[in-house]
Amino acid sequence: MELSFVVNEELLHYCVKSISIVCEQIKMVSFGKKLKERQIQEWQGYYINYKLMKKKLKQYANHSQAVVLDRRFVLKDFSRMLDNQIETIVLFLLEQQGALASRISELNEQKDSLQEQPDISKINDLRESYQAVGRDLLKLLYFVEINAIGLRKILKKFDKRFGYKFTDYYVKTRANHPYSQLQQVFKHVGLGAVVGAISRSLADLQDRQGSYLSIYDQPSLPLQDPVVDSMQAAVDRLSHSTNFLNFMAQHALIMQEELPTPVEEEVDDQKYHFMSLLLNLANTFLYMVNTYIIVPTADDYSMSLGAAATVCGIVIGAMAVAQIFSSVYFSAWSNRSYFRPLVFSSIVLFIGNVMYALAYDLKSIPVLLIGRLFCGFGSARAVNRRYISDCVPLKIRMQASAGFVSASALGMACGPALAGLLQTNFKIYKLTFNQDTLPGWLMAFAWLIYLIWLWISFKEPNRDTEINNVPQESKAEPAADALEKGVVEPLLLKSPENQQDDDEEEGDESEEAPEDSHRPANSIAAAYRLLSPSVKVQLLIYFMLKYAMEILLSESSVVTTYYFSWSTGTVAIFLACLGLTVLPVNLVVGSYISNMFEDRQILLASEIMVCVGILMSFNVIIPYSVPQYVCSGLLLFVSAEVLEGVNLSLLSRVMSSRLSRGTYNGGLLSTEAGTIARVIADATITLAGYLGESMLLNVTLLPSLFICIVSILATFWTYNSLY
C-alpha cells in the first residue's frame, strides 16, 4: 500500500509538472490555439467558435477591398452570428446548471435523512459527493470564463480591424435588454446560487465542534475545503469581484495570463526566495521615501541657494526626468539579472543623495539638480515589478503585488513625515546638517545599509527554465511508466487533423506576420502601435491623475507658505496624512465598493470626483482658507488613488497580451506615462512661478482641469468597450 501511494504521488507530481510545461510552451501561441487547448473535450461543441468568427472578419475585410460594404449590413450580420454563438453557450450553461441542481437536490435528501440517523461513513461519502459536484461546477465556471474572454477578444478584434465602434453598439443594445443572454455569460447568472448551495451543504457536514451556527451567521468563518476555495476563486475572477489585496495589487499592473487554467502554474522553489522578494519591496519603499522626503523643504533649499521658491518644481521633477530613461534600461536589464540592477540602483542613489546634501555647503544649484538626477537614474521599480511577475509563485503573487503597492504608499507617507522630524541645525567639520541637507544624508545612509543587506541576502533566481530531457523511469515500474505516457502524450502530441486545424488558424491570423504577431514589442514605437483606443484612453487617465497629484504635492509647500504661512513641519504633517489615506481608502474600495459596482462605473465616478477636487482648489474666494485647501486636496488625492487602482485594472484587461511580457511591456508604458506627467507638472510649477506666487495656484490648476475634462469625455467615448 505504501509503495502504491509513493508511485501515485510521484506520478501525480510528474503529471502536474508535465502539464505546467505544456502551459509554459503555449504562452507564445495564438489566442485561438490557446482557446482550443484549454477546452474541455466533451464540451467542445458548445464553446465560442473563435476561429469561425475570425474567418468571418477576414471575409468582411476581403469584400471591403473590392466592394464597399454597407456598415449596417456588417453590424447586423456579425451581431446575428454573435447572438447565435452566445445562445449556444447559454443554453448549454443552463442545461448543466439544471443537472448540477438535480444532483444537489438528491444529495440534500440524503443529507436530511442522515440528520435523523447519523452515520460517520455515510457522512464522509456524502461530503465526497458534494465535492465531486463542486469539481464539476468548477469546470463549468472555467467554461463560462473562457467564453467570456473569447467574446471580449473577438469584439476587440472587430473594432481594431474595421475601426467601427461595434463593441459599443453590441453591448449597448444587448447588455440591458430584458431578453439579454449576454448577461448570462458576463454575469454568470444562477451559478452563484449553485456555489452557495454546495458551500452551505459542505459547511453543514463539516464538524463545527458543537456549534449550531450556519455559514450565514458566520460568513467570515473559513470552510477549510479546497473545493469551495477553488469555486470561490473562479467566481471572483469571472465576475471581476475583488477584495482588498486584489484592489491593491491592481496598482502594480502585473499582468496575468489571459486564459484560466485548472492547473496552477508551478514556480520552481529555487526561483522564489522570500528574502529577495523582501529586498525588492524594501527597494520600492526606500525609493518612494527618497522621492517625497524633500518635498516639504525643496522650496526653502532653493531659496537658500539663491533661487526662487518655485525652482522646487525643477528640483523635485529632476528625479522624474531621469526616471523616464532609467525605467527603460532597468526593464531591459531585468531580462538578464535582478541582482546587478539592484546593486547599481543602490550605488547611484547613494551618490545622488550625497550630492544633494553637499550642494548646500557648495552653494551650487547644479550639484543639487545633478544629485536629484542621479536619484532618478537609480529608480529600479521596473525591476521590482518584474521580479514579482517572474519569480513569485502564482498563489502568492497577488499578496506580493499588494505588498509592492503598500510599500509605495507607506514610503509616500513616511517621506514627508521624516522631513518634519529633521528640524535641526548643526555642523560637523565643514558639513552642515539642517532640514535641507539631512534628507540627503539620511537617505544616503539608508541606501548604504540597504546595499550591504542586498549583497549579503539577495539570491539571483535560476533563469534556466527549459527542460531539455524527461527523467528516465525505473525499469521496476513498467505499469507506472505506461500510465505516465498515457497521461502525458495527449498533452504533448497533436494528431494530423489537429495540426492541420492549427495551420489553418495560423494562416487566419490578423494582418500581422504570423511569426511576429505574438512576439513582445521590441520598441516603444512597436508598443504604441499595439495600443487600441481604449488603452490610449486609460493611459491618458493615468497621465491625468499623476499630473494632478504631482501638482498638489509638489507645490504644497510654496502654496501653503504663501497663503497660510505654514512651517515645514506643518506641511510635512499634511503630506504625511495624505499618504496615510492610501491604505484605508483602498481597503474600503477593494472590500466593498468594487463588489457593488463595475470597474468602469467606479472609473467614471472617480474622474468626476477628481474634477470636483480640482475645481474646489481654485482661489476664487478671498481670502483663501485652510479648510478649502485641505478638503479640496484630500478629495483630489483620495479620488486619484481610487482612480489609479481601477484604471490599472481596466488597462490590464484591455491591453494586448503582447504587452504583458518583454522589455516594452504594459507596466513600462504606464510608468512612462505617469513619469512624463510628473515631469510636465513640475515644469509647470517652475514656469508658473515667473508669474508670481499669487498666480501659482490657479495657473497650475488650469492644465489639470483641462486634462481631467478631456479624460472624462474620452471615457464616455470608450465606455462600452470597457465592459
Automatic annotation (TrEMBL):
InterPro entries: MFS, MFS_Domain-Containing_Protein, MFS_trans_sf, SPX_dom, SPXM_SPX_plant
Biased composition (Acidic residues): 499-514
Keyword Transmembrane helix on entry: yes
Stretches that traverse the bilayer: 277-295, 307-330, 342-359, 365-383, 404-426, 438-456, 539-564, 570-590, 602-622, 634-651, 695-719
Keywords for the protein's UniProt record, in alphabetical order: Membrane, Transmembrane, Transmembrane helix
UniProt region (Disordered), positions on chain: 494-519
Coiled-coil residue spans: none
Residue stretches making up the SPX domain: 29-172
Membrane topology recorded in Swiss-Prot or TrEMBL: Multi-pass membrane protein
Biological process per Gene Ontology, one example term: transmembrane phosphate ion transport from cytosol to vacuole
GO cellular component, one term: plant-type vacuole membrane
Subcellular location field: Membrane
One Pfam family from the record: SPX
Keyword Membrane recorded: yes
Primary localization: membrane
Gene Ontology molecular function terms on file: transmembrane transporter activity
Family membership: Belongs to the major facilitator superfamily. Phosphate:H(+) symporter (TC 2.A.1.9) family.
Annotated protein name in UniProt: SPX domain-containing protein
Species annotation: Anisodus tanguticus
